[in-house]
Structure formats: C-alpha cells, structure tokens
Amino acid sequence: MSVKIKDVASAAGVSVATVSRVLGNGPVSAELRARVERAVLDLGYRPNLSARRLRSQHSQTVGLVVSDIRNPFFTGVSRAVEDAAYQAGMRVILCNTDENPEKEAMYLRLMQEERVSGVIFSPTRETSQHFNVAGFDFPMVMIDRTGPAGQADAVLLDNRLASIQLVEHLLDRGYSRIGALFGNTSTTGSERNGGYEEALKLRGLPSGGRFVAPTAEAAELAVAQWLKEATPPDALLASNGLMLLGALRALRAAGVSIPARMGLAGFDNEIWTGLVGEGLTVIEQPVYQIGQIAMEMLLARLEDASLPIRRVVLNGRLIERGSTRGPSRSEH
Amino acid sequence: MSVKIKDVASAAGVSVATVSRVLGNGPVSAELRARVERAVLDLGYRPNLSARRLRSQHSQTVGLVVSDIRNPFFTGVSRAVEDAAYQAGMRVILCNTDENPEKEAMYLRLMQEERVSGVIFSPTRETSQHFNVAGFDFPMVMIDRTGPAGQADAVLLDNRLASIQLVEHLLDRGYSRIGALFGNTSTTGSERNGGYEEALKLRGLPSGGRFVAPTAEAAELAVAQWLKEATPPDALLASNGLMLLGALRALRAAGVSIPARMGLAGFDNEIWTGLVGEGLTVIEQPVYQIGQIAMEMLLARLEDASLPIRRVVLNGRLIERGSTRGPSRSEH
DNA sequence: CTGAAAGCGCTTACAG
DNA sequence: CTGAAAGCGCTTACAG
Lengths: 332, 332
What we know:
The structure is a homodimer. In chain A, helix 5 (72-87) packs across helix 12 (287-303). Chain A is α/β, with parallel strands linked by helices. Helix content of chain A is 44%, strand content 17%. The first copy, chain A, is built from twelve helices and twelve strands. In chain A, strands 2-1-3-4-5-11 form a six-stranded parallel beta sheet, sandwiched between helices. Chain A folds into three domains: 5-47, lambda repressor-like DNA-binding domains (434 Repressor (Amino-terminal Domain), Orthogonal Bundle), CATH 1.10.260; 57-157 and 287-315, Rossmann fold (3-Layer(aba) Sandwich); 159-285 and 318-331, Response regulator (Rossmann fold, 3-Layer(aba) Sandwich). Chain A binds chain B through residues 1-2, 46-51, 53-54, 57, 59, 68-70, 75-76, 78-79, 82-83, 91-96, 109, 112-115, 137, 245, 248, 270-272, 275-276, and chain B through 1-2, 46-51, 53-54, 57, 59, 68-70, 75-76, 78-79, 82-83, 91-96, 109, 112-115, 137, 245, 248, 270-272, 275-276. Chain A binds a DNA duplex through residues 4-6, 14-18, 20-21, 24, 26-29, 32, 47-57.
C-alpha cells in the first residue's frame, strides 16, 4: 500500500529509529539526515499519524463543540481556532450539537475516543449545570457561555455590561418601554437579562425580558405576539444575531416603522445589520479574538496543567446605527 | 491512565478478542456479550480510535478542503457534510486554504498523513489545472468548482445556465448595458462568464465581464472605478455573495439608486440579500444538498472504487426581488 | 550519534 | 462461539 518508515530506512541505509529522529528533529548527524531526507522525498513518504498518535500518546487534536457552525458567531470563532491550531501543529474536530444536551454528551464521548488534547466548548445551560469537568481526561475551555462555576477556563463577553450599554443607549435616545428577547438555552441569555434588568431598575423603569429558543423563527413569533398586546414596547433588544433577524422580520411584517415606532438593537455585528434600512444598532463581539484566546488558553494549560483556572472577559463594542435614532416626536 | 480493552477483558473474565467482537458487533454469545457490556459501563471504557485506525487501516475520516469556512456557501456545505459524516460514523477534518495553492498542497499532504478515507475539495483554478488525482491514495469529490477534467467525481451548480437566467431576467426587465464581476481564482467564475457572454451574444449585445479577486473589497473597488468610466453599465451581475456585497457597497457609496439607475443581481441567497432595500435578485444555490450529495458520492465510491466518475450538476433557483425591477423610464 | 527491541491499544486471521 | 498470537506503523527508552 503506502510507503512506511521501514521503506525509508532501507532506502537510506539506516535504522527506522534514525528516520524517526530526522522526522522529529532529533539528534542525527548531518550525513544521515541528508540521506534520510533524500529517501523521504524520493519515496514520497508521509508518516502515519494514527501510528504516531498511538505510540506517542499525543493526539495533537482539539475538539470544537458548538451548537451550529452556521451561526456566524461560531463560524468566526471556528476560523480563528483552526488558524491557531494548525499553526501549533494541531488538528481540529468540529461538532455541531444543535443546543441538544444528548448530542453534547455524545460528542464529548467521541472526544474521549479520539483522545483529544483538549476541547473548546460552548455548552447548553442544562449541560453546564450538571456536568463534571473532572470526568474527562482532557482540559476544556468554555467559550461564549459559562460552564460549571469555576471548573474550567473560559473566554466570555461581558454580557451584563453589554446589555447595560444597549439599554442606556436606548433610554438616552428617548425610548422608555424597552422589551427584550433572550435565548433560553444558555447562560448567556440569563446574563444579558441580568444587565438589562439592572439598567432599567437603576432608572426606576420596569423590565420585561422574555426567554425563547435562540432562533430567528422563535423570535419572530414572539415579537409578532408581543405587538398584539395592550402596551407593546417602544424599543426591542434581541440577544443574538438570529433573534435580531427574527425581530426585524416581525416588525416589517407588522408594518412597524424603525426607529420611529420601535427602536431595535441587539447583539452580533453581522454583515446585514449594517445594510438594512439605516442600519441596526448592535454590540459587536470580538469573534476572532475569542477563538484565538480560547486556543491560547488551551495550549497554555496543555503546557502546564497546574495553571490556575482563568476567565477572560472581553468587552463588546456598541455600534450605533439608525435603528435607535429615537421614537417619533408625534407620539408625545 | 485511561482504561483499555485489556482491563475490560479481565473485568469481564473474557479475552480481549471477545471484547473487541462485542464492540464491533461480531459473533458473541449472549452471556459473554452481557458481561462485557456490563464491564464497559462499569469501567467507563472508551476505545482508542488511533489504535483502531492503525490496526484496521480504516480512518473513517473525511477531509473538507475549502477556501474559507466563513464564506456562507461553504459554511452551509460544511454543516451538511458534518451531518452526513457523523451519521455514517465518520469524522470530518476542516481545512481553510484562502484560495492559496500552497495551502491547498499542504493540506492535501496532511490528508495523506491522516490516511483519510476521502476528501471533499473545492480547488483553486490553478491547482485544479495541474494536479493529478492519481497522486493521492484517497478518492476526492470536487464541489462548487470543477477539478481536473473528468478525473474526479464532482457536484456542481449549472453555472452557465444560472448566468443565462440572470442575464435574460435583466434584459426582460429593460436593462441593456449589463456588466458583470467574476472571481478570478476558480473555474466557477469562468463558467459563469461563459453563460453571461452567451446570453448577451444571443441578443446581439456586447459583453464585458471583469475578473477580480472573489472578495467584497475587490468587488467594491472594481465597481467604484467602473462607475467613473464613460459608459457605465445600467445593470450589474456579481458572481458570489461576497462580490455582491462589495458591489452593493460601491453603489451605495456613489449614491447610485437601485434599481432605477442600476439593476443589481448575483449569486447566493444570503440572509441579507432579502433584507436590503427591496431585496436583491439572486440565484439561490442548494447549499445543503451540495454538501449532502458530495458526501453520498464519496461514500458510494468508498464502497465501490470501480464506479464510473460522475458529475452531478444542480440547477440554481432564480429569486426575483426589487433590485432588478427595471431602469427608470425617465432615461428613455 | 546510532541501532535493536519493546510496546502504544487495538483487530483479525488462525485454531479449536 | 472463543482465545492466543501476530501485527498495524510508529516512538522511545536502553545500550553502546
């Protein structure tokens, strides 16, 4: 079948150990090294990574476990993780869990079978509550969502602060009945709701965040219903790109003008948020950096397992656009 | 360290061969099977996939080599490939090549080292021209872009037809000077240009497609310059989602009204194309199916290497939106 | 610096 | 149906 280390050894007239050392940059005389390199090229030899992993007990592989790679946030993160991983000579295995705790469990089992070096994980709230990092042979870095309190490294957005910024921006612009939609499957939703409530309470205003599935469809439905109620909000905050999209669709379908009749703001600076109407006000997350830092933290821990557990909290950036320019004066 | 098959064997009082057979659904008596399964559960045993792969000579892994996972087309494809792969008990290794032939070569070498079962590949034109599928030990399925003529399975859009549909639609709507932007790194761009020229020639109209890097930035620049020329087009066709975005930005920056002063249409039904202004007319690609079919073709070939080489060509779907409603009458 | 030998954790003929 | 043994392709002590 394919050429193996033994073939290279005979072609170069050395032992397999020497070939292995050349490949691994071990101590080899210049002459033998040259002969081996010649033979590798001539034969087109490619080491078998399964054999190498089995023998060396290092898989040089990291798992990336997220809900759906098609969520632009995770798309961006994954690209950063890949870049950093390949630079460090590691492979990435990507897993989509669809916010489903059973799939999460299944993929984590798979990661064990792969004997991955580590995992970068964005868990559902359910999973993060009752699972024990100690039950796994590999370190984990949580991204976007907190894992079990203090058990693992994490890189997160300051969700509370971001929500506060968004709410205060809306209030400054003259909106007063601020509604909000949060995802019900992650800790992120709860944290953002926390900031939202805090900011309103500070001004003595009532809050009324609603929790729905973190999808465009669920958000669209929720907003459509909300508009039919007695006192609908005059501004809406949506907790991720998909939900912001759903909210926008519902408002358009109902003919509610933005920003006059309804202010609209949310999370994730996706391409379309800058193109739609006069633009949607959003909190931009440092997506690429989140992936990059997660990978750095993982590599650091692989170097030194005794490192203290770390949480890196990044600030989002408020991008003000037309969708929050303020309510129409005519209503006052 | 971690529990291995030998531990399970002693715990169950059987040989390692029997444990292996239970795991692989081989012929084992009900009694021994039960004892082994008990032991597997008790010990939390997880087979080591590197060892399994080395011994069985089956990696159960496919490589997915694309230019950038953040291109929504490839994001969608990758999700479909993952889904199909995991269902077939296979793993996916994702590689981003950034339209760079050197990275492509590097990752294909890596695929050899992984001893992948097969690769799903979207090559640059340069790579596809002078590379030999026979030089690899694994089968490939090309997606989105033709590989070396007739050497490998492929699943493609009918790019020529799609371009024709787009051009005829623009002509029907009253546009007459139709410009076009195509990516210069793939066969896809050439094919789409072919359809574009053919459709115009049929009506006796001049064509003038321009080839640029398939990025939003390059397209934006190209359109900005085009607008300054003596006779700019009255409609523009852009060959993928990123270029369509760039074109849109350039038109907005120049204050050119769509669809009155300039019709705009392109490829890829990305979310924002339906949200912007009165919507952009696009050809929708069956993204998920492309990934799904690619994986099916790969699995079929792994079953039977003697299968004839196949090309699956899918039709796009024209979605007519406001951006091509027709030029303003005032000009006539 | 170099080589012979052991062994990583499995699967798979081979016998029985 | 079951087990003892060989071997997948490497790396890594161990001697020299």
